[in-house]
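We include the entry.

. . .
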Amino acid sequence: MKKLNFLSFLVVALALLVAGPVARAAEDLGAVKARISQRLAHLDSLKAKGAVGENNRGLVEVKGGGGDAAEVVAAENSDREAVYAALGRQTGATAAQVGHARAKQIAAASAAGVWLQHEDGSWNKK
């Protein structure tokens, strides 16, 4: 009986160890997505002003700068990197591969006048 109780305890403990990080990761990813959503209008405004642009890795870069552009870029990139890493784990790709693919989607959907970085590293406005 003691052996059965210990085995049951061990199974429950292992399940909690595995489920705990998964639940926290899902919760954290939800928080990341919420922050990205909350930041979107401000980021779009910075893009429209030419203060920031979208690079070829799926991240944002300061172009003209000014104001809080550097802070917004740092926060956005941190959150995007977390999302890319999570998507990479789900798909078997690297975060860099996910970011590169996302950069193409972002470029295609970007408004006219937004700074975009090409594959060769050069920049132009859409």
Q: What stands out?
A: Strands lie at 52-54, 60-62, 115-117, 123-125. Residues 36 and 76 are 7 Å apart (CA to CA).
